[in-house]
Amino acid sequence: MVPLIELGKRLVTNRPSLYITVITSTLPFEYNSAAHSAYIAAVSAAFPSITFHSLPTLYTLRHLSTYPHTEDILFELIPRNNPNLRQILNSLSPISAFIIDFFCTSAIEVGRSLNIPTYFFFISGASALALFLNFPIIDRTTSQGFRDSGIEFNIPGLPPIPATALPPSMLDRGETYREFVNVGAQMANSDGVIVNSFEGFEPRAVRVLDEGVCVPKGFRTPPVYCVGPLISAADSGGSGGGERHESLSWLDSQPSRSVVFVCFGSSALFTKEHLAEIAHGLERSGQRFLWVVKDPPPLDDISKRFTKPPIADLDKVLPAGFLDRTKGRGFVIKSWVPQTAILAHEAVGAFVTHCGWNSTLEAVCTGVPLIACPLFAEQRFNRVVLVEEARVALPMEEEEGTRFVRSDEIERRVREIMESEEGVAVRKRMSDVKSKAKIAIGEDGSSTLALARLIESWRR
Predict the structure, then answer these.
(1) How many angstroms separate the CA atoms of 353 and 373, rounded?
(2) To pair with 2 at 20 to 30 A between CA atoms, which of 94, 197, 266, 328?
């Protein structure tokens, strides 16, 4: 939602004559509905030309816990709202352009049936787009699954991509895998793809997309518009404009670039065992840290992953004595944090992240180097790009044969990024990319020009 709305803000800022309607789906679970509603209200108040429509709530045919992946729920539910979507689009006619996100691929048929130019908004990077555009072609070349295949993908503009870096739901050739293949095919045949990235960050991937050579000869590359970075502006540190967050006050007392920020996004949950590994690794590293901890998910009810976790009881979920032993150099938060404001703080010197694309771009725009510790979705692919291609991150390696990171690996990587020559080199490269991000969205920058080309395509 956030990068899509940021795209809307940039569009109406550059072309005040535009009116934008955002159509949202209401899912059968609520992660943080209060924050969602407050965010929409704030956008509506600040940008009257951006309005919102919510599609009716639809429910699944079976219990949420029976779905292996969150993607399964989205791909099943969203197409059911196409009749309601058609009604809204008819009421808004005439429409210059219809922009859909990754999981709303089924809506492309609605746009085509109404003769509306239909574009995809791709919230990940240009490298990931190159992978997805190639996947329908890759699918034709092999009939085996990818989980233990040892296959490596060689795609123009990308480093070698091991099959293990695919999203988990793409490793086996099941129903969700077929949905992802269809997404790639539909993007290739769309009127264009809008990407939340910029030329200075992914130059090779952007070039092969612009030149139409990221897929084999005879296959189509759609028009691609890299208009990023699209991130929300750092607030003052209060949730919704309240008092300054306590984490920022703690950072004020820390030396410049001395703190490792550890945060794995809004939906990542760890078992108590894994939290203990993180805690021991941070403790033994000897580095200052700011760590966001959530309550571990109940192992007997998978559907709980779709609800907002309770506030963590730190004394129960962290190793005994950990908070006392790290008092002064460590600060643990058990709820929401103003991530963008934290990354922008002078005291933050590194970011341990799940490699979600929003978090990645927030780090890019603040010049904070990364320790890449992916969890799900396309995050393992992002790690390959960030480590091997952009070289703005150090990798956190899982234990062989598992997806579990041990404390000694956490300790090693935290020390490395804060103390070693390689850490200095990663920091310098991230600083360079930060400068390029500012240039990209400035006057005559690559993203500004791409946005202008996008708007011009609607006029044609």
Answers:
(1) 6
(2) 94
Closest CA to 229 of 50, 448, 16, 385: 448
Could you tell me if 158 and 127 are in contact, meaning their C-beta atoms sit under 8 angstroms apart? yes
* Helix or strand (DSSP H, E) at 260: strand 259-262
The pTM of this model reads 0.94
For residue 188, give both structure tokens.
């290739």
SS3 call for 29: coil
Beta bridge partners of 338: none
pLDDT digits (tens, 9 = 90+) for 122-166: 999 999 999 999 999 999 988 888 988 889 999 999 999 999 999
- How far from chain centre, in Å, is Cα 246? 26
**φ, ψ of residue 349 in degrees (nearest 5):** -115, -10
Facing residues of 225 across strands? Answer: 194
What are the contacts of 79-83 at 24+ separation with CB within 8 A?
79/106, 81/25, 81/55, 81/56, 82/106, 82/107, 82/109, 82/110
Q: What is the DSSP string of 392-443?
A: -EEE-PPPTTSS---HHHHHHHHHHHHHSHHHHHHHHHHHHHHHHHHHHTST
From the list 31, 11, 32, the residue with the least C-alpha distance to 22 is 11
- Residue owning tokens 């139409």: 212
Domains defined along the chain, listed by start: 2-228+442-459 (3.40.50.2000), 246-437 (3.40.50.2000)
What's the token pair of residue 166?
Answer: 């695919």
CA–CA separation, 227 vs 353, rounded Å? 23
In contact, 238 and 338? CB cutoff 8 Å? yes
Instruction: Provide the token pair at 55.
Output: 């599609």
Cα gap 187→212, rounded to integer Å: 14
**Helix, strand or coil, per DSSP, at residue 238:** coil
pLDDT over 80 (residue 239): no
Handedness of CA 161, 120, 77, 5 (dihedral sign): positive
SS (H, E, C) 41-52: HHHHHHCCCEEE
